Amino acid sequence: VLTYLEHRGGREEVRRFFMERFQTQAHGLLARLDGATAEQRVQAVVDLLKQQGFMAEWTPSADGGVRIAEHNCAMQAVAEKYPEVCDAEADFLREILQADVRRDAHIPHGCNACEYAVSPTGPRQISPPGPTRESA
Question: What is the pLDDT of residue 109?
Answer without folding.
Answer: 93
